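Homework help board

Subject: predicted structure for assignment chain

Our instructor gave us this sequence and asked us to write out the predicted structure in token form, then describe one feature. I got the tokens but I'm not sure how to describe them. Can anyone check?
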Amino acid sequence: MPHSPVSVTRHLRRLLELLAAGAPAEELGTVAAEARRDGATAEDLAEVEKAIEAALRVQSTLRQHRRREAELTALFDTAGDLAALRDLDAVLRSIVRRARMLLGTDTAYLTLPDEEAGDTFMRVTDGSVSGLFQNLRLQLGEGLGGLVAQTARPYATPDYRTDDRFLHTGSIDAGVLDEGLVAILGVPLLLGSGSGGQVIGALFAADRTPRTFAPDEVALLCSLADHAAIAIDTAKAMADARTALAELAEANAVIGEHSAAIQRAEESHDRLTDLVLRGGDVSDVATAVAGLLKGDVAVHDGSGWPLTAVGEHGGPFAGGPADGGDAEEAAALVASANSSRAAARAVSRDGRWVCAMLAGQELLGCLVLYGRPDLDGPDQRLFERSSVVTSLLLLLRRSVAETENRVRGDLITDLLTAPDRDPAGLVARGRRLGFDLDRPHVLLVARTVGEARGRLADAAARYLFGSGGVSAEHEAAVVLLLPGEGKGPGEAAREAAAQLGRLIGVPVTVAGTGPAAGPRAIADAHTEGVRCLQALQVLGRAGQGAGVTELGFLGVLLGDSHDVDGFVIATLGPLLEYDTQRGTQLVRTLRAYFDCGGSLTRAKEELHVHVNTVVQRLDRVQALLGPGWNTPEQALELQLALRLNLLSGA
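My token output:
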């Protein structure tokens, strides 16, 4: 058959159509078979086959270009991810996923070193199905990955299980076998270039069937590894920058707080100092400190007893009478104050802050802060400064009080030795010194023994501090005058005996009389108090406190007023009231019982009643007076009261 250009052209056009459609190489080869079936000459077949070879070359070139375009696109996208780096894990996952896609492998993964553990771990995997493989850890030099990290060079193996170029270990081989990997390509993540480059990890692509990786595939994976290294380094730099910025911000905040604290401390110190200079009292300073530190504040003396308190947590016994629990609390505060003195700073004890107030080595007292368990450095220093200011105020007040007490002591001495010499002058002198002798006062006479006598006067001044009372030494005792609107003489004497004893460390006996108003009455009360004090010592009640009226018939004998009716009422009052209300004869029965020497038989004859009636009446006496009515001491007081009642004609 002659050569036909048309037929050749038709087959060449078919070849171009298949090439344009992206047909596989096998389909391109069918064009030659079609030409042969159509009866093409040998010359035409040769032309068609040459055209097919050219088409295959064009197809290969296009495939390479498309792959290169895809690779460049992936690298460009990776670079974009790096430029907008927000989450390092997301960028690394994207790089690993692209490596698996571009190389067409079954899986891809990235490992990073663990500096603390000294080995390498799986950071990101894509396409992995084995938990054992995903949790593999490699030592330097172990497995293909260890070799890549050790040499900083790419390594590829078509069959990992039979490759003896690297060290096999049981754990790595088990993980690779569990994942089913055969062909593996690994490249290093390098920072820097040349011999000075630092390996910070490795990127891998792997297949579950044997495969030989081409040089361009190795180069592509190296490019992706370079991007991963940049991402990791950038993230680390950003983390370091954020850490540095945070540390800088924290340091700046600390500096700002410190500066503000210093300024606040200076302002607070100036405020407290100004308060003292303007004549503020201890309570004013405590109120100011409580406001500055946002807590409750109490000021205690050197024995732990309260001077003033601000707030509901100002101390469990602030302003209250002393009892056993208060003594324990006072002792605990003194122990905390001594700890503060030894440490030369405030200390935290039992949920409160305590700072010693010192005059040299003398413990004046302590400043106590409640409600601020988290007291920080600046506030702690402010609290300590406040204790210094309070110490100065206490020293100033004590100096003034000692001076005033000496002057008042002279007045009390004149008052007790010559009350009738110039009564009006004594009252005027008292008013100039801040107390009015014409107002009722409770008078206490306190005495102790031994070397403690010299400390009793100072202790009395401390005890009366802030109460409006005055004290002075007189005739080997200490006399205290307290406003008479408060406690009675017996209660005041007992409280003073307890607290003065704690202040000087030895028992103090205190007698109380009054209330008395006016120079003569106060002098007479002092005479009664001295006699009462002597009676307490004779009765073996040294170290206690009592009022004249609480000594029973001794009070009648000792008191200048000789309050017979008061003694009778205090002793027989329940019986007298019972007889009056019910018309009974309990008082007469009791008198007959004592007159008959305690004989029921004689008493019933004296009273002309049955003996059972006498018994019943005495049972009622016991119910009204208490079970101890027939003890010798109380029986004596009852007989005296019965005799005085009879003699008074009641």
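Reply (TA_rk): Your tokens look well-formed. For the description, you could write something like this. The longest helix spans residues 215-277. That's the kind of observation they're looking for.
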